[in-house]
Design a protein that fits this description.
This protein is mainly alpha-helical and 126 residues long. The protein is built from five helices and two strands. The chain has a two-stranded antiparallel ribbon. Strand 1 and strand 2 form a beta hairpin. Helix 1 crosses helix 3 and helix 2 crosses helix 3. The longest helix is centred in the C-terminal third of the chain and has 22 residues.
């Protein structure tokens, strides 16, 4: 696994780590089931505080990119299953909340389109 962190970058180190691992998992460079280095080992390798690497791992786990299995460590998750399940759950929760708020379907869809545009392109591209 090849990771690099630019301490002078505007992006925080934990986010640089998260993005690189997520991208390598998405492309298959990091295959499903691969065991990642321990938090301490990766922190030492990158010259970072363990808390920085731990935060990246927590966010990757929340995104379904990795799974933590106690003594077995942190492993690359099966991307399709976890990512789709998490996205479906989030979509269902949003739909239910929009309905409870009385938001018309068209307005709820417009809000989703705007959020997706921002997420995939960034605010400067909207």
């Amino acid at each position: 696994m090849q990771l690099s962190v630019d301490p002078a970058a505007a992006t925080p180190p934990f986010e640089q780590i998260r993005v690189q691992i997520a991208e390598q998992a998405r492309t298959g460079e990091l295959p499903t089931g691969l065991r990642l280095p321990t938090v301490r080992a990766l922190a030492e390798e990158l010259g970072l505080a363990p808390g920085t690497v731990a935060r990246a791992y927590r966010e990757l786990e929340a995104d379904g990119v990795v799974e933590t299995h106690g003594r077995r460590g942190t492993l690359i998750a099966a991307a399709g299953d976890t990512a789709h399940r998490l996205a479906s759950t989030a979509a269902a929760e949003y739909a239910e909340r929009a309905h409870r708020l009385g938001l018309p379907r068209a307005d709820a869809l417009a809000a989703v389109e705007t959020a997706l545009r921002l997420a995939y392109q960034g605010p400067e591209d909207v």
